[in-house]
Amino acid sequence: MQHIIDRFISYVTIDTESDANSETTPSTAKQWDLANKLVEELKAIGMQDVTIDDKSYIMATLPSNVDHEVPTIGFVSHFDTTPDFTGANVKPQIIPNYDGKDIILNAEQNIILSPSYFKDLLLYKGQTLITTDGTTLLGADDKAGITEIMTAMEFLINNPEIKHGKIRVGFTPDEEIGRGAHHFDVDKFGADWAYTMDGSQVGELEYENFNAAGAKITFKGKSVHPGYAKGKMINSILIANNFINALPKDETPQETRGYEGFFHVNHLSGSIEETVVELIIRDHNKKKFEKRKELIEKITKKINKKFAKQFGEDIVITEIKDQYYNMKEKVVPVKHIVDIAEKAMKEVDVKPLIKPIRGGTDGCQLSYKGLPCPNIFAGGHNFHGKYEYVPVESMQKAVEVIVKIAELTSMPNFGLEAPKTKKKK
Ligand SMILES: [Zn+2]
């Protein structure tokens, strides 16, 4: 257990926060610090063909140890952490044999990780938890994934009696700002399919995610002295307010779950003359997703129509951009890649939790780039904040799942009952 803890801590104590405002790749130079370390480590454990490109994308190979033909599979994780919360000076705390009670993350600032609020903690009674000190995030998202892939590869190298095909490993920058897959060279990776190790709770297995779009809506106004404004002033703040009120009230992140989509207003700034509202649109269902975008356009038109005379031009300017799509479409035709992961979990006593992702992953972009890529748990909870934690036992299970997937893939019919002959070209 100590080995995996040490490895994980050696990654999370390196600050790799990404930055959405940067145009370079990686978005922050400090991501190189961990990237370069990972390259050295991959070589040290005995991986072959270890490469890092000028944008810090890392790839490596574990050669096949069987003489029959086996599909090449890949495992992918990201080494950046979210810009939403600081990842500098992470000081992990280790809680052995967790007793199911409150964990004092920071006595000075009275920051408590409590199972009365975070009920998932109770799943891990008796296990070893790694938490923050209450002042930073932990970075289990997704350094737990990197730890698990690295540890599984090391295990396979040290245990050559376990048979497997060729395995490719990919570590990427900038996933948290939605760019992790942008410069991922799927051809160079050369895998038939892959898995991101980037889910949360032990057992999670995901191959459906949101269709996603972002909208920026600009409201124009006219500023006039408020004492003499009758019939003249147009207050863009109030128009923006009307717009937001026209959205369905119960279709917000806090009111929805499962397959329910939403609108999420996540930024508003403005004055009389101009107000900008930013929102995101999410839905698993492609048709409903399109309908949501149409609603935004409809509300825009309605308000523009109302103010057409007074303002003389469009008072509301709406820009909608698609961000990513549901990977289900790309994974269902090769459904056995999910079945293999499910079987692997069962064989190592992990109960598979197959559920739709209420977000996106690098895997959904990779799936659309020709590399079908479901997502598997990495074990952490409460990502992107100071309450983030990961049970070491969950990381160990993830290692076992990776090893088992490798093993199953080298077996006839991938160890699955019904013959599956479909293979991606
Ligand atoms: Zn992640």
TrEMBL record:
GO BP annotation list: peptide catabolic process; proteolysis
Binding site for Zn(2+) 1: 78, 141, 198
Statement: the UniProt record of this protein carries the keyword DNA-binding: no
Catalytic reaction list: Release of the N-terminal residue from a tripeptide
Domain Peptidase M20 dimerisation: 207-308
Cofactor(s) listed in the protein's UniProt record: Zn(2+)
EC number: 3.4.11.4
The protein's name: Peptidase T
Organism: Flavobacterium degerlachei
One Gene Ontology term, aspect cellular component: cytosol
Compartment(s) where it occurs, according to its Swiss-Prot or TrEMBL record: Cytoplasm
Residues the record marks as active site: 80, 175
Entry GO MF terms: metallopeptidase activity; tripeptide aminopeptidase activity; zinc ion binding
Alphabetized UniProt keyword annotations: Aminopeptidase, Cytoplasm, Hydrolase, Metal-binding, Metalloprotease, Protease, Zinc
Binding site for Zn(2+) 2: 141, 176, 384
Xref: CDD domains: M20_peptT
Pfam family, one: M20_dimer
